[in-house]
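Weekly sync, protein design subgroup
Attendees: M.S., D.O., the rotation student, P.L. (late)

Item 1: inverse folding check
M.S. brought a backbone from last month's batch and wanted to see whether the design step gives back something sensible before we order anything. D.O. pointed out we never logged the input encoding, so this time it goes straight into the notes. Structure tokens as presented (226 positions):
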């Protein structure tokens, strides 16, 4: 959804992966996690089909080759399952993200993507989020997804032994800087209705919890680019 809304607003979107290989979405979310359920909604799936035909998506840059100065904003997407560790735990990427953060330009992170910022370090050894307000995938959401699917999918919904919320909280100057948001397990925002969505805004930084916030997340990020 962020890609679709950014392109609709007239922005160029550049993708980057570790070795410049074309990325791919989680097949389970496209076909249904359990018995065809719990997957993506029809409109985001249609957006993903369009995304896979985008020339920039087919030929991403390498993390090591990124010139952070040429970009106006940075979006750190989310995602779960152990395969995401390639992205969430890569120290080279964290150095690139830290360099971009220090340019004081718009940054958006959603769901597990907030972990990338939580793991970056400035010259003083602090995360960029240290003095910020943020949200991320709440612990109750991660627990609910894990316990409801463990019998079939094992640790599919547990990317790391620690919960995302716990690690993000630990990177902040105080627990009060973490904002969990209203309790939600099923309601999702849409392109025309943001009533079920939630984001946290702090200056040039915007964060969100899960795919149900993605439309509002994209809109708030685009506001910062303007």
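Designed sequence read out in the meeting:
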């Amino acid at each position: 959804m962020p890609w679709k809304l950014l392109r609709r607003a007239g922005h160029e979107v550049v993708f980057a992966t570790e070795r410049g290989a074309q990325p791919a979405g989680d097949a389970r979310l496209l076909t249904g996690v359990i018995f065809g359920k719990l997957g993506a909604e029809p409109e985001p799936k249609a957006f993903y089909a369009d995304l896979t035909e985008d020339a920039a998506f087919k030929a991403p840059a390498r993390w090591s080759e990124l010139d952070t100065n040429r970009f106006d904003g940075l979006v750190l997407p989310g995602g779960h399952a152990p395969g995401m560790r390639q992205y969430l735990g890569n120290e080279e990427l964290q150095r690139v993200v830290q360099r971009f953060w220090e340019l004081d330009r718009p940054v958006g992170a959603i769901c597990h993507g907030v972990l990338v910022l939580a793991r970056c370090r400035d010259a003083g050894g602090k995360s960029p989020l240290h003095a910020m307000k943020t949200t991320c995938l709440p612990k109750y959401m991660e627990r609910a997804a894990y316990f409801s699917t463990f019998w079939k999918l094992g640790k599919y919904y547990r990317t790391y032994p620690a919960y995302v919320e716990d690690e993000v909280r630990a990177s902040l100057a105080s627990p009060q800087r973490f904002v969990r948001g209203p309790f939600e397990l099923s309601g999702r925002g849409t392109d025309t209705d943001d009533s079920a969505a939630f984001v946290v805004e702090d200056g040039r930084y915007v964060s969100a919890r899960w795919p149900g916030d993605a439309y509002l997340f994209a809109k708030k990020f685009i506001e910062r680019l303007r």
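Discussion: Residues 139-153 form the longest helix (15 residues). The radius of gyration is 17 Å.
Action: P.L. to compare against the previous round before Friday.
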